[in-house]
Amino acid sequence: MIRPGSRVALYRVLAVAVPIALIELACRLGWIGRQTLPPPSEIMVGLYGILRSGRMTGAILETLRNVLVALGGSVVVGIAAGALIHAIAPVRRVLEPLFSTYYAVPIYGFYPLFIVMFGLGDKPEILIGFMLAVVAVITATLNGLDGVPRVLLKTARVLRLGPIGAAWRVTLPYAAAELFTGVKLAVAYSFIGVIGAEFIMSQSGLGYEIRYAYDNLDNAVMYPLILLVLVVAVAVNMTLDAWDRALRARRGAGLGGGR
Amino acid sequence: MPDIEVRLSGVTRVYPGRGGGTHALGPLDLDLHKGEFFAVVGPSGCGKSTLLEMIAGLAPPTEGAVEFEGRPIGAGVPDGVGVVFQENACFPWLTVADNITFGLTRQSLPKAEVERRLARALQLMGLEEFAKAHPAQLSGGMRQRVCIARTLVMEPRLILLDEPFGALDQQTRLLMGDELLRLWRATGATVLLITHALDEAAMLADRVAVMSRRPGRILDVIETGWGPDRDSRIVSDPAFGVVTGKLWSLLREQSLGALQPAP
What we know:
The structure holds 2 protein chains of 2 kinds. By secondary structure, chain A is mainly α. Chain A is built from 10 helices and no strands. Chain A has a single domain (50-253), classed as Orthogonal Bundle (MetI-like fold), CATH 1.10.3720. Chain B is of the alpha/beta class. Chain B has 2 domains: 1-80 and 160-168 and 192-263, Rossmann fold; 84-155, no CATH class. The model of chain B has no long low-confidence stretch (mean pLDDT 90). The A-B interface holds A 149, 151-152, 154-155, 157-161, 165, 169-170, 173-174, 176, 250-258 and B 56, 58, 76-77, 79, 81-83, 85, 87-93, 102-103, 106, 134-138, 143, 150, 154.
C-alpha cells in the first residue's frame, strides 16, 4: 500500500514528467518543429554536454555570484530595515502602503539609469536583483515581528534578558518561520532580477548567453541554458520549501505559538 | 508580626491618554507576608494584572512605591521574582527541557546544577516523559506546567501567577491547584495569585484581597484560615462555602457595576 505522502510525491513527479513526455512525443512526431523546440531529451543531453565541456562555467559562476550578492544584500538590509520600520510606528504608517504597491513598479525601467550610474558591469544587475528582493524581505520581517506574542516578550524580561538578548533569543527565533518565507521569495526575485538584467543589456552571465544564443538561432545552447536556469531555481526553492515545512511542522505550525 | 515580602504604599497607575488618561488602579496599600499564599480577586478590568506587573517590575507605578524584600523595585524584574502568565508563554521552537532551562543559561551555573534543577522541575511537574517534546505536542495544561517549571528552576522567592489556569477546564484547574499547593509547600516561596475565580482563590490562598471595579482598590482582605496541608478536597468543607460567600458578597456589587456601560 502506498502511503499518502508517497502518493503525493508520485503525483508531483507525474505532473512534471507527463507534460515533458507529451512534448517529447510531439517533437518526435514532428508536430512541433525542431527550430521551434528540440525534443526535451536532446535538451537534457545538450545541457550535460555544455556542463561537461566547461565553456559556460564562467558565465554560470558569474550569475550565481551576482544572485548570491543580491540575495545576501537584500536579506541583511531587508531584515535590518524591517526591524527598524517595525520599531518606529510613524515611519511604518508612511511606508507600509508604499510596500504594497512596490511590485507594480517596473524595476527594469530603471536599468538604463543604473547603467549610466554604474556602467555595464555587475553592479546594475545586482542592484536590480536586490531591489526586487529587498521589499519581500522587509514585508516578511514586519509580518514576523507582528506575530511575536507580547507574552513572550514579557517572559524575556522576567527571565532578565535585555533588549538585545530578547531580540536574539526570543524575537528572532519566533519570527524565523516568517523570515524564511521572505528569504524564499528573495531567492526567486534575485534570480529573476539578475538573469533578467543580464538578458536585457549585459555582456556576460547566463542571461546574456541565453540572449546571445537566441540572437544567433542557436537552439543547441539556448534551450539547455534555459533548462539549467529552471532546474537551479526549482531545486533551490524546493530545498528551501522542504526546510520551511520541516521548521513549521516541528513548531506545530503556530499551535504552540502562544497567540 | 510576620516578615513583609512585598509592600505597596500609595500605589496608583494611570495609563496615559486623552483627558488625563485612564486611571486603572489605586491609590492602594498592601503587604504580602513572607511565605504566604496570597490571592487577589476582582471584577474584569479592575487592574489585577496591572498590580501584578507593578510588583514584577514590568510596569512602574504612576505614584507610590513598591518594595520587594525591603528594597524599592526599579526598572526591570528584581532578582528572586518569577512570573507565570495566563497565556501560553512556551517558546515553540524549543523542547520542553530547553524551555525549562532557558533562564538558567544566563546564570553561568555548573552544568550538573542545571541538570539537577531540570530533573527536579520535570519530576515535580510530571513532565519527565516529555522533556524532548515540543510545546505544540502538549495539551494546554501541560504547556502551563512547562511555564511553571521554567519559573521554579530559577528558585524564586516570590512567585507571581497571573490567572495561570484561566485557559484550562475546571477539573484540570482543581488538579493544577493541588500541584501548586504542593510546590508552594516544597519551595517555601511567597505566592501571589491573580484570578477571577473565587473558588480558586478561596481554595488556594491563606489570604484573599478583594478589589473594587476600576480604578481598582482593595475593598477587604479575607483570611481563609486553612492549614498549610490543604488540597482541593477542601471544596466540600462547609467552611469553604462560607469563605466564597464572603468573597462574593463583597464582589457582587462591584461586578454588576463593571458590567454597566461607561457613562
